[in-house]
Amino acid sequence: MKDQTYPDAKLVLADGTQIRGKSFGYPSSISGEIVFNTAMTGYPESLTDPSYKGQILVLTYPSIGNYGVPADLINDKLHLFFESEHIHISGLIIADYSEDYNHWNAVKSLGEWLREEKIPALFGVDTRSLTKLIREKGSMPAKIVHGSIDEIPFKDPNKRNLVDEVSTKEVIQYGSGKIKIALVDCGVKNNIIRSLLKFDTTILRVPWDYDFRMLDYDGLFISNGPGNPEKCEATIKHLQSALENEQPIFGICLGHQLLSLAAGAITYKLKFGHRSHNQPVLMHGTQKAYLTSQNHGYAVSEDSIPQKWESWFTNLNDHTNEGIRHQTKPFFSTQFHPEASSGPTDTAFLFNTFIQTIEQCKKK
Amino acid sequence: MQKEIKKVLVLGSGALKIGEAGEFDYSGSQALKALKEEGIKTVLINPNIATVQTSEGVADRIYFLPVTPFFVEQVIKKEKPDGILLSFGGQTALNCGLELFNNGILDQHDVKVLGTPVRAIQETEDRQLFSEMLDEIGIKTARSLSATSPEEAIQAAEKIGYPIIIRAAYTLGGQGSGFCHTQEELIQKIHQAFSYSPQVLVEESLRGWKEIEYEVVRDQYDNCITVCNMENFDPLGIHTGESIVVAPSQTLTNREYHKLRQISIDIVKRVGIIGECNVQYALDPQSEDYRVIEVNARLSRSSALASKATGYPLAFVAAKLALGYGLHELKNDITKTTSAFFEPALDYLVVKIPRWDLSKFHGVSREIGSSMKSVGEVMAIGRSFEECIQKGLRMIGLGMHGFVANHELPENKLEDELNNPKDTRVFWIAKAFDQGWTIEEIYNATKIDPWFLSKLKNIHQLKQKLIDFRSIEALDNEFLLDLKKAGFSDFQLARILYDEDDHETIEQRIREIRIYRQAQQIVPYAKQIDTLAAEHPALTNYLYFTYHGDSHDIIFEKDKRSVIVLGSGAYRIGSSVEFDWSAVNAIKTVEQSGYRSVMVNFNPETVSTDYDSCNRLYFDELSLERVLDIVALEDPKGVIVSTGGQIPNTLAMRLQAYNVPLLGTSADSIDMAENRHKFSALLDSLNIDQPAWKELSSIEDIEKFTTEVGFPVLVRPSYVLSGAAMNIVSNQKELRHFLELATQVSKQYPVVVSKFLTDTKEIEFDAVADRGEIIAYALSEHIEFAGVHSGDATIMFPPQKVYVETIRRIKRISRQIAQALNISGPFNIQFLARDNNVKVIECNLRASRSLPFVSKILKTNFITIATKIMLGEKVEKPFKSLFELEYIGVKAPQFSFSRLSKADPILGVDMASTGEVGCIGDDYYEAILKSMLAVGFKIPEKGVLISSGTMRDKIELLNSAKWLADHNFRIYATRGSHLFLKENGIASSLVNWPDVKMYPNALDLIKEKKIDLVINIHKNLSSKELSNDYTIRRAAVDFNIPLISNARLASAFIYSIGIYKLEDLKIKAWDEY
Predict the structure, then answer these.
(1) Lowest-confidence range among A163-167, B216-220, B742-746?
(2) Distance in angstroms (rounded) separating the CA atoms of residues A262 and B1044
(3) Chain A contacts of B449, Cβ < 8 Å?
(4) Where are the alpha helices (DSSP H) in chain A?
């Protein structure tokens, strides 16, 4: 039995479906795109992942909030337990909520955190039925309403430039190592920066539309981020000219899609995306399979990979593209998240690959 | 693959025992299925005749032989397999395989170990080597030192610092382990640890840390996944087999989850596992610090649980990987389209709860700790912890209805029950809440994570709120749904709301609640276990029920073309793998007859709960409430209640009351056989003899009755204070003693007293009838006289020493009973026979424990016949008769006393064995020797200790003792036996009773291992006191020396070793008989 009483609220989908739940977040009404994630751990990480900007997130794991929320400790300009400074989802939908949490590093409950960050959330929903519906009908506009179901309209966040909303507005420097990396922030997760800082690096985090061609860098990194990649015209344009040069480029998730677009490939929207910790990928030409963490609604068309480029990883479940690389130049990218957080850490070695590639190029 | 593998030998785990149970039938069956799919010939060695894996068509060849290096080598010589699988038969198979490898036998016969290389297994089995290896790659293990003598162990403990834990190396599930807080405690425990193993490890104690497990799979390409992680509800210090376990972990953050996951993968890659491996951790509840505590480089109980918890068939996949497949080359068996290289995403929780049967044993300590005592387990699936734990606590079948609304607990000290965990601890937490304890206070006493406690508190608070209501109609729907979501059964609601104890009234209230609830549309929904949390469509038939839902995952046909088979629930003493075999065979027959099979069961150790073995699996409760839910949704042709043991059998009358169509014998007949009074009246009306009995409610009446019928009598109380439920008493004094100390006699708790017949044979009659006519039958004979529970008896089939006239009478009586009860389906009658006087003890209108044994020996599947009859098909009588068999089968019990510290290893009227084997021989003596070797007996080489009870026992043993003496065995005997042997011209060395502190003393000889067989027959049928006999028996068990406590069995064994040497035993497969 819950100690508190929670008011009823509704989730309304663009197809007309209405689902009643108990409101345990901020009691405001919002709209967004409804998506589901099947991970069993990592709600603090997911909620602060900028790639979720504009989305109402359904967690399929039924018991959420068990270990509370840690304090927002900051170490060297990075959030120790979060992926960015704020919750980025528009709303949260779960089955069973643990208002009583327990963990040594927890300072508040999930509900308290959501209310502080003004994010509405519902529990008591059959998230399995809901997920099946999203799987069958695809991601779609949805809203959480606390009053009348018509109090706010549906809005498709993919029509906005979400990257611009989450990207840094200024240039930030991390570390003071020998290898200089320009990091184009389309909504970067802190763990990508942490992963790069494990090496002898200096990182310059720049806004998504920053003309990084002006910078003196050894390697270029294009980050993850929310929404439709085609909205990032400026980044694509800058990337196209970077492809003329020889400095290594590594892209993750949205960064992968942007690199692909710059190279001449095509991206498309997946029916309901990949959002989970258990996506299997196979590295081309090998018997090596890796388990990956993913969070994307768009994908690169495997058939559209241009000449001089090749498919690097493929999804073992639905055979979608999971990475590309240039046949001769040090350019590569992955659709999945080697930095994990949350999720499995199988492909963390790719940061190593990136740094080694930079070092080799520097020697030349 | 260098060498083409065409024929593979699979080692089974033998009889079920504590620490090694049905899970290995499941994993072995999966492995055999995987091999078969590849067109590989399979040879299986497993003496456990009641298993599914030893059924026709699972392996190509089956040997019912002991899984020991000697027999396995003989089979290798004969079968010449190309490869061998060691990791599907538990520690028994693994140890046997390692020995064969170390002796060079596998090399000599060019048999390749498939899967994880032996070197890797050895590295994980030797804890010292293993810690060093992990240390090299920067992975932390508990600080540990190995010792080869008690002195070394004491030194090691001083280095590490108390508290410490000691563990014997190379043992099953923690034998010879224990915590020691002081040097005194260590000295006490260390000798026993060394009796199990020459190497003992002394480790730092991490008591109170979280215990977490990962199930890891790796292929030959170094691809590696963790299929599942699990968290123990009970903190470290309680063996994982004794813990309530939840999957996936509940209190771990993403960082903790993935840190331990990555370490698991690093370990498995470093070791070089090919197949499955289990890694266990201790995790500090106050930081991210951890220790690796154990690695099992084989399929385990946890891996079977993980398979059932996730739908990922670990054993099947492990067998494929052993053949050289890569994970990415295999498909997810549930979706059929996605890859087997993935980690299941659960959108539900599972809770495993152990089932103990400690009340079956005299003298056993009820404390649970670092060694395993539980005999079975259940798994509950739901969408909240509250829902799962309440389901699970009902499933364990100890008369509990969930976390709350149970019978009052006995008057014990709450603090002690919380601090020193025993089998009922979780219920004491409910009591603590009743008494106002806070979560923090309970945490301090138990170290159970406050998250779990807060969930239990939720349940308790709901109960507190419900107490204020007086009728179901008074509850608002939201509150009622909250209760159901928290796992409250209709029974719990009825008990709390109406506070009534009368059986019939409660039954009526349950019915009212059900009707009201359905009218309010508060009903459970069937959800699929699909491995991917609904991300991909899956046509899976693996289902559970939850109240956290608003729609079903599947569409119900409701075409009366499905048949529901109710399973057996948790394995326990008296109900085990034999009912899984029956249920699986019933399912198969249902399908062969053109119906869809629907299985209901919740035991993760079984083959019947493999979603692949039926058309639809409901992994859920076998309660009236849930079965009615399923029947309503399925609208089946009917329900089979007679192949799953006692649980479904008991449901029959209640299901009938709801007009559920039952297939086979009617519920009224079942009731007539189950109800002592009705059945007795039936026998009287048929002029069938039965031992005199009466239900009595005062000591005076009992004494009057015993004067009439004479001693000894069997006393069955309905209320038990301590010790076993039944007892045989030989005189007035014993009767008084038992009635006053162990039970309570009153109108409310009557006692059933029946005349006990000594020196009487017990005979089992297993049969199948069709509308009262017997179609097939089998008669088997107990070696022990009546007085040993039929589950503990050694049984031969066909009978060897029963008069033809006795058999004729038994058949006639059985025909009468079958006709009177109009039986359609399987049944079993137990008879007593002495000088052609035949009496009926009891009759069960369901499959029996001995049914797989007689079916396999006779090669006539009784369940197939029974199921066809229940489906209404016409069945011909099989041609084969038991009188034509040219071989003999002997079924022998397996005891697990070594696991049950202090329990008296004695055979009595209450069952104590945990498993059984069945072996075949050309004659009685070959069969008995094989079967006794298969349950751990060894042919003695050094000395035999005889301390035999009554004069009758002494006479029974005389010839065998003479044989032993003639063959230069050293006989040691206690005073009475020594004198008796001397009078009869047999030399023996006199040894003193344990309480005579003079050398040679029986206890010393056992400790010094000068004796390798102990024959101890207790004199007194009822004495439970700690005595010299007890000390001898217990020492035999503790020092791992074979013990026989029945004179007839002892002489049968000694005759056998007189006739057969090990080399003379025939290595013949089942199909060669």
Answers:
(1) B742-746
(2) 82
(3) 102
(4) 43-47, 110-116, 127-137, 162-166, 190-197, 233-242, 254-263, 349-363
